[in-house]
Structure formats: structure tokens, C-alpha cells
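This section describes the prediction task in plain terms. A model, or a person checking by hand, is given the sequence of a single protein chain and must write out its three-dimensional structure as a string of C-alpha cells. No templates, partner chains or ligands are provided. The sample shown here is typical of the held-out split.
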Amino acid sequence: MINNSKNNKKLGWVITGSGHFFEECLDIMSNLGEFDLFVSKAADEVIRMYKKKKASFPKNTRIFRDTTASSAPVGFFYKNIYHTLVVAPATSNSIAKFVAGISDNLATNIFAQAGKCKVPCIVLACDTEPEHDTKAPSKMVKVFPRKIDLENTKKLKSFESTKVVSSVDDLKKVLSKI
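The expected answer:
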């Protein structure tokens, strides 16, 4: 189990609509201590498409879904209860919005408020290489991220207090150090 308590604060985790790394992220979450999970509308759809097994989150995990126009759960960041925010997996769409400063859904609002409240962020970007294999709902496929997707991931790496990782192993390493 990853010890994610830091000064009596907890970890926040956002999942977006990516199938890439989705099951691996569920496995990591099942080994965390107490954390809050923020599920975008797109992630809700992906959960139904990709979920082969029931995730076993720790007993006190709070799950917030994208059901309010104002993304009400962002208010938790003003209460100083999070030591770190993880966005994993992060779609190229979410990353593009992060880079452009767009906050129009739960995932993008949570990321923006974490930054505004100086909560460090770890982002597992899905599009980090010119080509890679990814798991679609029914099989493995080869994808070729666009130049703009790769550029946005590179730009996100320059954000203060934001660590962008490109693999599940890298995410585990960073999580083990918090």
C-alpha cells in the first residue's frame, strides 16, 4: 500500500476519459490509503467500456462525479485538505485544456484549482510519444498522437508544481516519494 498521508492531508485523484493506462491506474488506486476520486463525465463512460473487474478502493474513498455545472467539489481545495493531485490517465483533450487554461468540466476545474491553491500535481499523460500501442475496449491498437498533442504535453511539463509522467512505472515511482 502506498502511504499517501502527508501532514494529515490526503491525495486527490482525477480520472479523465482515457482507456490508455485505465486499468493500471485502477490497480494503483486500489493500493492507496484514503483518497478522494474525481470522475469526469468522459471517465464515467470509459469505466463502463473498459472495466473488467470491480475496483476495490479503500473503505473511506470519496467519489465525486461530474454532475454540477460549477464543479462544486473544487471547493475542497480551498479547505487545504489535499497534499497532491494526481490526474491519471489524462487524455490529450484534458491536457490541451490544462495548457490553454480552460476549466469547463470537473477534471479541468480540479486541475486549475489545485494550481491556484498551490497543490502539487502529477499528470500521467497518454500522448507522450509519436506512436504507441494502447488498449481499446476490445483489442490493442496502434495510435499516432498528433503534433499538437505532443506539443501540449511538452508545454504542460513547464507548469510550476506539475510533474508529467509518461508511464505507469514512472507514476508509481513518483507516488512512492510523496
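For orientation: Residues 10-176 form a domain with the Rossmann fold fold (CATH 3.40.50.1950).
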